[in-house]
Design goal:
Blueprint: H1 3-8, H2 17-46
């Protein structure tokens, strides 16, 4: 491409795989934390807690 053509090129929003992977890992982490808290609450409620 010539310099004049390169100047007229503009970029858009880049939704990369890295960004998507970070979002998925964040959602997975939040889900996992909620599952662990819920499991702990159920064990405490049922009296199945290690002493």
């Amino acid at each position: 491409m010539r310099k004049e053509e390169l100047i007229s090129v503009y970029g858009g929003f880049d939704f990369s795989a890295t960004l998507l992977n970070a979002i998925v890992k964040g959602i997975t982490s939040i889900y996992d934390i909620g599952r662990r808290i819920g499991s702990a609450l159920i064990r405490y409620k049922n009296g199945n807690v290690c002493n």
